[in-house]
Design goal:
Length: 449
């Protein structure tokens, strides 16, 4: 039922999300909420009456980039749309955004965006509306029910916040403490997504494998229990989850990778560094040895699993010896895909005030060497799939007529010429070529699922 908080239901909106997959999910939920209020998605974001900038604070100079984006919203005639800044930069910068950028009408943190309609209504009355609250009640209960989806894949946030307090990370300050959404709510949302045409769901969380709850019988379960229940849903063909912490890889979750067919053979498990000394300074609470043991056990459970990792280069105090240990870890594990960054100083985090900050030139040099090794491993993994028969879920159109792009079980992008097939179809293919970022394939059969 539409609320009375927004005065003009015929106005248009555009939500622009930056950063992580959880921001993508939040952006989709904000769009659904505004649609439920009568707003209509603008065909061109530049012409929208309302623009929501859903921000990410994980990278350096994130706040300055937001101010640049705000400036670009000024139109040729000098006017601006109603501007709402949401997400983690909003939480970190607070009312300073409204002070520095007078054109901003609404500032709302990631735990309060369910109040966006009311905040916009206040802005329509000429107020500067700021809400950085982290309410005890869950925002998810205030959001509209999930309805039809236009894509075959969807994100589902199951857990938010973080209690790990890595010394470089702002998440505990912008997203708050770890909370797990109730089991029943997640099953209901997943069923609504599947009813709307979704065939693959990716479960999201800052520490997604820290999720816990009680099932319908009141039994305590972890993420593996949730996955097992979701796997029973007819029409849901694939399940993924991200992002995980090594210390939360339970016996049950590891076993699930070998026991649940719908759980895809892909694990993103950030390690960040290969030096125990640096890991301790990061407050990562795992060691190189414990990380390697987890990887070994996961591969025992699912031998064909693809392993992905995160790496931070140039953390304060990192020596060349520490960096060499990270390179050795990469060689020992053999990552199939990865994400790597130079250390980014985040104000307010313990690492920002640490001594022995590494010079930028040194960080850039190390990053280039590290990425060269990671790229070599990824190319090798992709080339090893040439000739392999696999199954794709077609997700979007390719660059050429009749070409569609889908994801392999190992999260590789694969393009295939498939005239007559449609987005959402699942097809059997054989991989014929491998590049650094995508694969080519040919259809094995006409039948689709």
């Amino acid at each position: 039922m539409k609320s009375d908080s927004l005065p003009n239901p015929q106005k248009t909106f555009h939500v622009k999300s930056f950063g992580c997959q959880m921001n993508v999910y939040d952006g989709e939920r904000m769009a659904e909420m505004l649609g439920a209020e009568g707003y209509v998605a603008a065909a061109d974001g530049a012409d929208a009456d309302l623009v929501v900038l859903n921000t990410c604070h994980i990278r350096e100079k994130a706040a300055e980039k937001v101010y640049s984006d705000i400036g670009r919203l000024k139109r040729a005639d000098g006017s601006t749309p109603t501007i709402a800044v949401a997400g983690c930069v909003a939480q970190a910068e607070g009312a300073e955004i409204a002070r520095r950028a007078p054109s901003v009408d609404v500032v709302v943190g990631p735990q309060a965006y369910h109040r966006l309609p009311g905040l916009i209504a206040r802005a329509e009355r000429g107020e500067k509306a700021v809400d950085l609250d982290m309410p005890l009640e869950s925002k998810f209960g205030a959001l509209p029910k999930r309805s039809g989806n236009q894509r075959p894949t969807a994100f589902l946030t199951v857990q938010e916040g973080c209690d790990k307090f890595c010394t470089y990370c702002v998440v505990p300050y912008t997203r708050g403490a770890e909370i797990s959404r109730p089991f029943a709510d997640l099953i209901a949302e997943a069923r609504a997504l599947v009813a709307g045409g979704v065939r693959e769901i990716t479960l999201l969380g800052q520490n997604v494998n820290a999720w816990d709850g009680e099932d319908e019988q009141g039994r305590a379960i972890g993420l593996d229990g949730l996955i097992r229940e979701l796997a029973k849903e007819d029409g849901l063909e694939r399940i993924r989850y991200t992002t995980s912490h090594p210390n939360d890889m339970t016996d049950g979750l590891i076993a699930a990778h070998g026991e649940i067919e719908k759980l895809m053979p892909f694990l993103h498990l950030p390690v960040q560094a290969g030096s125990d000394r640096i890991l301790a300074a990061m407050n990562r609470s795992h060691s190189v040895d414990s990380y390697l043991r987890v990887i070994e056990r996961v591969r025992e459970a699912r031998p064909d699993i693809a392993i992905s990792g995160d790496f931070i280069v140039g953390f304060p105090g990192e020596t060349e010896e520490d960096f060499d240990k990270t390179m050795k870890l990469i060689e020992d594990v053999g990552f199939d895909t990865s994400f790597s960054f130079i250390y980014s100083r985040r104000p307010g985090t313990p690492a920002a005030s640490m001594e022995d900050q590494v010079e930028e030139a040194v960080m850039n040099d190390r990053l280039q060497r590290l990425q060269a090794l990671l790229n070599e491993q990824q190319q090798g993994f992709n080339e090893a799939t040439v000739g392999r028969a696999t199954r794709l879920l077609l997700e979007r159109k390719g660059k050429h007529d009749g070409q569609l792009i889908g994801k392999s079980p190992w999260l590789q992008s694969v393009h295939v010429t498939a005239p007559g097939l449609a987005i959402g179809d699942m097809v059997d293919v054989r991989v014929t070529s491998a590049g650094p970022n995508s694969l080519g394939a040919e259809l094995l059969m006409e039948a689709v699922a």
